[in-house]
Amino acid sequence: MSSDKSRYYEVCKGFNGLDKVLLRDPRGSSAEVYLYGGHVTSWKNDHGEELLFLSSKATFKPPKAIRGGIPICFPQFSSHGNLDQHGFARNQFWAIDDYPPAFPTNTSNKAFVDLILKPSEEEMKIWPHSFEFRLRVALGPGGDLMLTSRIRNANTDGKPFSFTFAYHTYFSVSDI
């Protein structure tokens, strides 16, 4: 469980020893989020049915992105910019944010985790903008998966920047 015993999450090791967060709702729904990429790799309803597709070719080996689930594309979606396709957020290690600023969404359910990504020196060389990307992953009252993103310009000079962003979701379907 988290440091706040009223929340329903657990940090454990996933594939290739990567840290992941398991969220569990008391009614049975669940989700897993890898800190590598801030990447949701599983979302199960209260019947235990997997709702996301994860490729059998997913390697879980940085610097490769995880294939399937819900990748975070930032600061660029697709090839709409000068960076590698889909930007770098999905290829970075995010941290758990135990003390996030208040979120505008009402999360009465305790099954959530807050993650944060800040640029490394390496990213600043290819995209010279200081930012804070905060991501809340939560299970809603009916087992709904809710992702809330907040991106803040942290440039000390106040210089604006542009970006594109996407949740690149892969849903599981019974017959493609």
From TrEMBL:
Gene3D superfamilies reported for this sequence? 2.70.98.10
Tell me the SUPFAM superfamilies matching this sequence.
Galactose mutarotase-like (SSF74650)
Q: What is this protein called?
A: Glucose-6-phosphate 1-epimerase
Species of the source: Stylosanthes scabra
